[in-house]
Design a protein that fits this description.
alpha/beta, Metallo-beta-lactamase, Chain A, 8 helices, about 270 residues, eight-stranded mixed β-sheet
Length: about 270
């Protein structure tokens, strides 16, 4: 029997004002979409897989993002000690996804080899591409290779029982999504292959990309995988995730932190 996973989205930072014109080609300058920042966790019994490590809190204010809770505290809220985590899957290496590698000292990491080739090669001679990365974090990833703590993936495959990874390049050269078996059925954790539900529904072109044509092709792949059932997809930055799904933990002000995105949504999706 295929293993079933609980899936958590942790909202650790926010950017309440993020306008459509800043996000998409041809976007409206007066349409505020906002942007939430998540990392994720899969849990089945005692087995835990962390997906991405979020942005470094010290770097966020200068980039206009508001940190809400540390990665360690977010995990501790659901009974997980970051220092004990042994598996971290990296969907890509943008600054807001690999900013806390040091929070997982016992972990082994997995990432597409295409991503490492991009972040250590000629792609980084283009300022508009390398702007999504931080050199110190790239150096840490290279250091993990030398420590035998980073395994490279090539395309699609099985990561664990009930967890498959799918190569979705475009936003970055090695962008990857996860297809996860849950008690409610398969769930596509799109990460930044899809940032927002409306983005994939309308095939909007996000402004941060390595290859725009590949990115739009990956949008279509994600769309096909869920067959129009948007509740079977979790985008990487949509604030609707924060308000649609049951929260297991909250900040002192009541805002959600740990969201159970494998459970049925509590509110209808707005497209």
């Amino acid at each position: 029997m295929t293993k079933k996973w609980e899936v958590y989205a942790f909202r650790y930072a926010a950017m309440p004002e993020r306008y459509e014109a800043e996000l998409f080609i041809g976007g409206r300058p007066d349409a505020n979409w906002g942007m939430d920042y998540f990392f994720w966790m899969l849990r089945s019994g005692e087995e835990v897989i962390v997906v991405d490590t979020g942005a470094n809190a010290a770097k966020m204010p200068a980039k206009g993002r508001t940190p809400l809770i540390s990665i360690e505290a977010a995990l501790a809220g659901v009974g997980v000690n970051a220092a004990d985590v042994d598996k971290v899957f990296l969907t890509h290496a943008h600054w807001d996804h690999v900013g806390n590698l040091d929070s997982f000292p016992k972990a082994h990491f997995w990432m597409q080899q295409a991503e490492m080739a991009s972040i250590t090669g000629p792609d980084m001679t283009f300022a508009k591409i390398r702007g999504a990365y931080q050199s110190d974090e790239v150096q840490k990833l290279v250091g993990l290779v030398y420590e035998d703590r980073l395994t490279f993936l090539d395309g699609n495959g099985s990561f664990a029982d009930g967890v498959d990874y799918m190569f979705m390049p475009g936003h970055s050269a090695g962008q990857t999504a996860l297809q996860i078996e849950t008690a409610s059925g398969p769930l596509l954790l799109a990460s930044d292959a899809v940032h927002y539900y409306r983005e994939v529904a309308e095939e909007l072109c996000f402004l941060a990309f390595n290859d725009a044509k590949e990115m739009l092709g990956s949008l279509r792949k994600c769309k096909a995988l869920v067959g129009g059932n948007w509740d079977r997809m979790i985008p990487g930055h949509d604030p609707q995730i924060t308000w649609r799904y049951p929260a297991e933990t909250r900040l002192d002000n009541g805002d959600p932190v740990a969201l159970r995105v494998d459970l049925p949504a509590m509110k209808p999706l707005e497209l």
